[in-house]
């Protein structure tokens, strides 16, 4: 079948997705043109900002790819004070970013649950209820998710990392703390609790094939997620997966594959929110803008106080770690315009998909 016809089919299957991920030359151009067209038709040109607060790099888990894994003793651990977190949220609010994302290493304890609950209430208060809040705090109990929802969080990001069980096992320790089924259940719980649930995967992992990635896209579709954030895997020298660095796709190809994943996902799930991952920018200074051009509609500018950014190094060459939040803002304004976008200042920018999903559940 001709490529152009293939990518315009109503029902896309695995072979179609693999073809998209392998597209080169003219086909690659057609893919990006189609995904840009679909983006504009279904979610418009607006790009929504979520001020990202990376509030702590203390993590109880030991993922083989991650620079802040528990066993990495070379990391200076930090934990922002409540005041610092609230100041970062106030900054995001003053910049008229519609939402913040609170992200940190994974900790599960009653004290942690309570701390986040109180912070959520205070962030709501300082913004007169107007800031949207996304959490990205890993696997937690249903009760914890529920308390955080009731305190004001309405979106949650939990990347599945890969939807393939075997690959999941290869990139995580094999113990009860790194269990694929548990992660899957958490994502389901979040969705059932009424959160806008977001997931994502890393692209270009060792042992990963385009078939795996096509399955990841089908997983996102069958799970019916509202948001996706996915980016290239970038090796970190203090992690076990670094041993496989010679088996990876060259970094430029990993970047390109990530763009093709975003384009294919936009064609597959037309009305969801897709974030332009920061890892794209670590490879190409204009990485996030390129993603916006071909399908992404969310950017998460870092609003973490500059002093701590170097320590939140999940991967190497993480961008903007030496900048202060103002520098980030000024450069972003100009850059989004270059990518044919407009910024949805002061808007939550909820996913259109979520609204439709909720409407369907109400009708049932
Ligand atoms: N390269 C790219 N992304 C990474 N993450 C963690 N380590 C890496 C890495 N080495 C991503 C994971 C996690 C998110 C917070 O950061 O997907 O869910
Ligand atoms: Fe912290 Fe994976 S190392 S969640």
Give a structural overview.
With 364 residues, this protein is an alpha/beta fold. The chain has one domain: Aldolase class I (TIM Barrel, Alpha-Beta Barrel). Helix content is 46%, strand content 12%. The chain has 15 helices and 10 strands. Strands 1, 2, 3, 4, 5, 6, 7, 8, 9 and 10 form a 10-stranded parallel beta sheet that branches. Strand 6 (202-203), helix 9 and strand 7 form a beta-alpha-beta unit. Helix 4 runs parallel beside helix 5 (110-126). The longest helix is centred in the first third of the chain and has 18 residues, at 25-42. It starts with a helix and ends with a helix. The structure holds 5'-deoxyadenosine (5AD) and FE2/S2 (inorganic) cluster (FES).
CATH topology: TIM Barrel
Indicate how many domains the architecture comprises. Answer: 1
Structural classification:
alpha/beta
**Architecture per CATH nomenclature, i.e. the level-2 architecture:** Alpha-Beta Barrel
Secondary-structure element string: HHHEHEHEHEHHEEHEHEHHEHHEH
For the largest beta-sheet, the strand count, sense and barrel status come to: 10 strands, parallel
List the total number of helices.
Answer: 15
Mean pLDDT: 93
Radius of gyration over C-alpha positions, nearest whole angstrom: 19 Å
Unreliable spans:
none
CATH class: Alpha Beta
């Amino acid at each position: 079948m001709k490529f152009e016809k293939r990518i315009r089919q109503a029902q896309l299957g695995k072979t179609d997705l693999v073809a998209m991920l392998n597209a080169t030359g003219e086909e690659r151009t057609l893919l990006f043109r189609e995904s840009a067209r679909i983006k504009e038709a279904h979610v418009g040109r607006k790009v929504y900002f979520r001020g990202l607060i990376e509030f702590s790099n203390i993590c109880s888990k030991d993922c083989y790819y991650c620079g802040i894994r528990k066993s990495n003793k070379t990391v200076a651990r930090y934990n922002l004070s409540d005041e610092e977190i609230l100041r970062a949220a106030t900054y995001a609010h003053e910049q008229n970013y519609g939402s913040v994302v609170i992200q940190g290493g994974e900790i599960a304890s009653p004290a942690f649950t309570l701390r986040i609950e109180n912070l959520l209430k205070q962030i709501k208060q300082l913004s007169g209820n107007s800031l949207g809040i996304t959490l990205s705090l890993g696997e937690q109990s249903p009760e914890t998710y529920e308390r955080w929802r009731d305190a004001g969080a309405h979106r949650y990001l939990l990347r599945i990392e890969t939807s393939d069980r075997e690959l999941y096992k290869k990139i995580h320790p094999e113990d009860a703390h790194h269990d694929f089924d548990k992660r899957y259940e958490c994502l389901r719980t979040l969705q059932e609790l009424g959160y806008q649930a977001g997931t994502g995967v890393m692209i270009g992992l060792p042992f990963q094939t385009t078939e795996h990635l096509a399955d990841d896209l089908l997983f996102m579709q069958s799970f019916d997620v509202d948001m996706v954030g996915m980016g290239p895997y970038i090796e970190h020298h203090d992690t076990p997966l670094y041993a496989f660095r010679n088996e990876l796709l060259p970094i430029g190809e990993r970047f390109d594959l990530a763009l093709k994943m975003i384009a294919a996902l936009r064609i597959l799930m037309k009305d969801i929110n897709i974030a332009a991952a920061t890892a794209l920018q670590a490879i190409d200074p204009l990485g996030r803008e390129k993603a916006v051009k071909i399908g992404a509609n969310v950017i998460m500018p870092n609003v973490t106080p500059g002093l701590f950014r170097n320590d939140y190094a999940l991967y190497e060459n993480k961008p903007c770690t030496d900048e202060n939040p103002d520098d980030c803002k000024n450069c972003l304004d100009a850059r989004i315009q270059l990518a044919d976008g407009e910024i949805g200042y002061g808007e939550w920018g909820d996913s259109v998909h979520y609204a439709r999903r909720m409407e369907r559940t109400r009708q049932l």
